[in-house]
């Protein structure tokens, strides 16, 4: 897998030019990392079978919307659902800011050194300490750019890996 090293401005240009299904490397800071309020902002529920996002209809009527999933429209419970980190962050460099970049579950688990379930038990002040450990720090990220699977007009930008800094 090859990746092109870019800055924020160049990454935005690649997206404007409809250059998808590519990997990019970017040196940046984490300029927005909100993990200390609003549970629904950083945790999602996924189907254990197909990994599709579970739909919550009418408060706790959970089902998998994927028509090809074995579970289909059946009611789901804690044995068929996996909680994952699903956080949107902002990244910035000297050329600008990219907002609403998804931070992958794998990267977040590595940073937090715990599962989602363990993290949810942390008190808010501990989450704030963790937030400031990463906020405004410099990183080298592997960024994946894809078309949104359900809406071709939308783009999904995801941090899939953190690399050792070389700057």
From TrEMBL:
InterPro entries: MEIOB, NA-bd_OB-fold. This is Uncharacterized protein. GO terms for molecular function: single-stranded DNA 3'-5' DNA exonuclease activity; single-stranded DNA binding. It comes from the Eukaryota. One of its GO terms (biological process) is resolution of meiotic recombination intermediates. PANTHER family: CELL DIVISION CONTROL PROTEIN 24 OB DOMAIN-CONTAINING PROTEIN-RELATED.
């Amino acid at each position: 897998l090859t990746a092109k090293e870019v800055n924020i401005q160049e990454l935005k240009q690649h997206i404007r030019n409809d250059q998808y299904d590519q990997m990019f490397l970017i040196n940046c800071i984490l300029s927005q990392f909100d993990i200390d309020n609003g549970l629904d902002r950083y945790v999602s529920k996924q189907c254990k079978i197909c990994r599709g996002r579970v739909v919550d209809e009418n408060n706790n009527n959970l089902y998998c919307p994927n028509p090809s999933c074995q579970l289909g429209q059946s009611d789901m419970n804690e044995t068929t659902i996996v909680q994952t980190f699903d956080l949107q962050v902002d990244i910035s460099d000297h050329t600008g800011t990219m907002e609403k970049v998804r931070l992958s579950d794998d990267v977040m688990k590595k940073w937090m050194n715990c599962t989602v379930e363990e993290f949810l038990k942390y008190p808010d002040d501990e989450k704030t300490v963790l937030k400031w450990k990463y906020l405004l720090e410099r990183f080298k990220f592997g960024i994946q750019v894809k078309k949104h699977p359900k809406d071709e007009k939308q783009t999904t930008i995801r941090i899939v890996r953190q690399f050792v800094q070389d700057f």
